[in-house]
Design goal:
The protein is built from two helices and eleven strands. By secondary structure, the protein is mainly β.
Length: about 140
Amino acid sequence: MSSPTQAVAPVAAAVDVPELVFASGLPGFPGERRFALVRWGAFEGPYSLMVDLDNPDVRFLVMPPYVFFPDYVVDLEDSIAAKVHLERAEDCLLLVIVTLGSTPEEATANLLGPVVINLKTREGMQAVLAESGHSTRVPLRAAA
């Protein structure tokens, strides 16, 4: 990406991606590096599972942030884009990890650490937007 930061708007929906490579793993899961992105729930629904290909018990519920947070825009630093060889914003799939609660009203999204995926190379990483003011546990119901 050519500027120091570039706003990345989320792709319209998550797509089934057979294999994603996270060279550095994920925060808290440094050894988990190969994932598949598969739809979860209703086919037309916004949710997908990011499933570890080497340990299928490790999985993360993800969704495009625009579903509940239409104004969520990430200023992606060049260093983050470079880690996944992202050259064009159009090639970026931006997802947020969803944590389910005991009731649907308790579900939250991690807006502080979006998952950045280069759709061309299938490389991904979880970015940490330390200066963004976002939180790791933003209620979905508050945004609806």
